[in-house]
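Thread title: Can someone regenerate the structure for this chain?

I was given the following input by a collaborator and told the matching structure tokens would be attached. They weren't. Posting the sequence so someone can regenerate them.
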Amino acid sequence: MTAGPKPPRIALIGISGYGRIHLHLARECRDRGEVTIVAAAVINPIQEADNVAELRAHGCAVYSDYEEMLRRHAGEIDLCLVPTGIYWHARMSIAALQAGANVLVEKPLAASMAEVAAVQEAERATGRFVALGFQDCYDPGTMWLADALRAGAIGTIESVRFLGIWPRARSYYLRNNWAGRLSVDGAPVLDSPLNNAFAHFVMLSLLFSGFDPEGTEVKMDGVELWRAHAIESFDTGVVTFRNRQGVRLWFGVSHTSHEALEPEIVIAGSAGCACWRYENEAALVDADGRQQRRAIPDQHATRREMMEAVLLRLRDPQAPICTTAMAARHTAVIEAIHRATAIATFPPALVEWTAALEATEAVPRVPGLDAALRRACASQQLLRDSGFSLASGMKAS
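Best answer:
Regenerated them for you:
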């Protein structure tokens, strides 16, 4: 009797922070016999002593440097997981590709279109693929909605909008060396709610508006960016633009609030409407008033769906993943946002720092901002067109 195919060989770059999620996914697959974890790069082995010991007990080689790991295991890794900081994504993905591995990299793909182009060139040169960690793009309910919209279930798509508000304390921006930064050591980061916490919903909005592989030229209609936190980038923003098909997109996000508002993407068509609710459902209503719905699982389930899809892609080149071409549209939007306007600072006198909800840490709040964001979302306008104004002490960066 001949033995079956050997399970794919997995490597990880980073197992701390968000890397713990990728480590958990890899372990689940390993314990089911679906993969072998052959190597891991760990820059803080003392803090991760238990995880390092467990990995080594299962035959995994552990390194302090990802380049050494890739050099020693060149040609021996089928899939490299890259759950690291934004400014590492492109360079680590390229290094893994050049070492003969396919890649699953955390979102976003990169912080510049130049880096996106470099990753895509490495894909072509090596014949390997890079899958993006926009996990909702792997969910069947989400893809059902995208396919239905593409097939004209609600007619011609006219607009796509979402509003998300997640309070964040100071510690959120102190957790690493790139949070809230525009660049680190000369490498672009462009960290922001739209490029990090709410990046998934930007990606889905672009998907629902109609995928255009040439749609990386973005011209903004209006952009407002502010910060209450002591950061380089923005923590509150409103963005509106149109894609090449004329679909109007509106995004509103904030970490400056005491009340959370889970993201809901609303899609308006010429013959109906649809919505996508975070960890809830995807639904549409056609021109005849018929409703269709699909459940959207929580993020833990969608991450497992993502891992399953990427492992399937190793066996089947036609298996769908979130590609670099798809992710490039997200990066193009982020670059265009930062080109469009300067980041403004909320006047300190307007910012209230108190504990939000059950949190023990202080969170910033600007009176009237939450209500203005909701009004702006309903009308798909900028805040200044929705009756929101700041004291004259506001200054631009």
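The two ends are 70 Å apart (CA to CA).
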